[in-house]
Amino acid sequence: MSNVFPDGFLWGGATAANQVEGGFHEGGKGPNLADVLPGGKENRLKLLSDTGFDFEMDTDKYTYPNHEAIDFYHRYKEDIALFAEMGFKTFRMSIAWSRIFPKGDELEPNEEGLAFYDRVFDELAKYDIEPLVTIAHYETPLHLIKEYGGWRNRKLVEFFERYVTVIFNRYKDKVKYWLTFNEINGATHMPLFGLGFSPENEETRLQDSFQGLHHQFVASAKAVQLGHEIIPGSQIGCMLLYAPVYAYDSNPENVLYAKKESLLFNNFCGDVQVRGEYPNFIDRYFQENDINIEMEDGDLALIKEGTVDFISLSYYMSRTDKKNKTPEELGQGNLIGGVKNPFLEASDWGWEIDPKGLHIALMELYGRYQVPLFVVENGLGAYDKVEEDGSVNDDYRIDYLREHIRAMGEAIKDGVELMGYTAWGCIDLVSASSGEMSKRYGFIYVDKQDDGSGSFDRSRKKSFYWYKNVIATNGEEL
């Protein structure tokens, strides 16, 4: 695969503030969504599928691993030094909104929070690591959830605009690459994470989710415009959770069903954020599901003017589906539904492993939009065993990443313009979907366990040295 990856390709790793920082009460930070999510797979999955979560903490009943996470808040220098040792060109991270505006609706920001990210960006600059910053990554301030009902409320557009204006002005000389909303299209499946509300009932879920999405489209467009004004030369992208949808068989009923599901899940948000308009296919869906979006005058013009510069995506799995499926046919682990694909193996958490799906995803996206793409999340959550000598021989992770990087190379050969690749959870972190430390993704092992015990010590896994060589050879040696 000689010289497939372009010069300047941005190799690196990805995290989110709520999954690594900890220090949840320090530096003037206010509570956010992640702070009230209990640990443990059953607890998290129940929250995602249930209605009426009250956003309260019960420390007698649950653990809250995001409160400490892996303590990046105090250990960022050590962690960034390890990223630099691997040769990272970029580091994807997020800013915790409630570090900057503890409640979310204040008029003045929290200086201590702003200063923390100054220190992080300065540390990255020391090693010539380009920050790639997600503005909103499942970190809605708790006050905005409890007081306003999350993104269902139009007022959050104003609060977000204030937050964005502050961070763009503060970091304009330090950050060039920005993403607006993490996995924005996942919001209808998981409104709790993306939109900061728990549906009151199934009847209102779709209406409230698409109304909240409209507010995020407006907020994203404003952020793009502000970014281009405040930071000349900045690049601001959207971020999609992308999963190609395969028809279970060649029955035209199932092919049509899969096509429509793919348009709704993979393309609706992309069409709005990249093309700048609501796509035609959504009209029928809204009509058939009694969805009525309240818009203000000028919203559609603003969305048209505030289109993103590139598309970033997370890719973990594909989805296989059919029109009429029985409960027995459902895929057990895939968070986005569908039926089991007989041709694919699954991870320890039941996520189907499909490297060729990434090749397909990149071709579909580039074919539809012709804007640069950036794979900003991809990785394998797995149980890691620490050997007596302290090593972690994670060949399964190396195999997974090798095949996905190979798939990116094939997509580049097919003409796809790809900016970079940031492996998810480059250092072990708290899983968003399961609230576990034992679901490990990192090249770097963190001694922190599900029960809260551990030294927080960092150590290099076998994959650390492998990825270091991948970067050093610009993807030529896999």
Automatic annotation (TrEMBL):
Keywords: Glycosidase, Hydrolase. It holds the Pfam family Glyco_hydro_1. The keyword Hydrolase applies. The keyword Hydrolase applies. One of its GO terms (biological process) is carbohydrate catabolic process. PROSITE patterns: GLYCOSYL_HYDROL_F1_1, GLYCOSYL_HYDROL_F1_2. GO terms for molecular function: beta-glucosidase activity. GO terms for cellular component: cytosol. The active site is at residue 377. It comes from the Bacteria. NCBIfam families: PRK09593.1, PRK09852.1. Belongs to the glycosyl hydrolase 1 family. This is 6-phospho-beta-glucosidase. It comes from Paraliobacillus ryukyuensis.
